[in-house]
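I hope you will forgive my troubling you with a question about protein structure. I am sending you one protein, given as its amino acid sequence and as whole-number tokens for its backbone shapes. Thank you for your consideration; the sequence and its tokens are set out here:
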Amino acid sequence: MSAQSSPLGGADRRLQDLGIQLPAAPTPFGTYVETVQTGNLLFFSGMLPVVDHKPKYIGRVGKELDAEAGRDAAYTAALSVLAAAKKHLGSLDRVTRVVRLGVFIATYGDFFDQPRVADAVSDLFRDVFGIEKTSVRLIIGVASLPYGMPVELDVVFEVA
């Protein structure tokens, strides 16, 4: 078994092996819920790079923030996805596929390295769930995102 394929113990064990501590599951900033499951699909509200319900980063990639800060913001938002999934499902082992990943990045000027920023999320999901569960992906550069944050994720998981 390769290092990137699903581990014997599943996603929860892999998270532990990677030394990743999930934050508390995020709470809404408005009138909505963080997750909705219909059938075997789990949809997430737009996940932002927050820590303790506060923005970890504010600004646009290519102006106030560089690509590394953008990557960290994306990674932080991805940890919130995993935390919300674990809270909803009880175990990340119930995720059978990462179906779709949308990465919205607030960018400025001639910043064109959005795929590198988005890879922070794709790499984390690959490392936790295995390469065979890699999703389709959409990356969109936008002028602004809620509360001035640089990244917002749109994610759908297939679950058992």
In short: The two ends are 23 Å apart (CA to CA). DSSP finds three helices and seven strands in the chain. The CA atoms of residues 16 and 90 lie 15 Å apart.
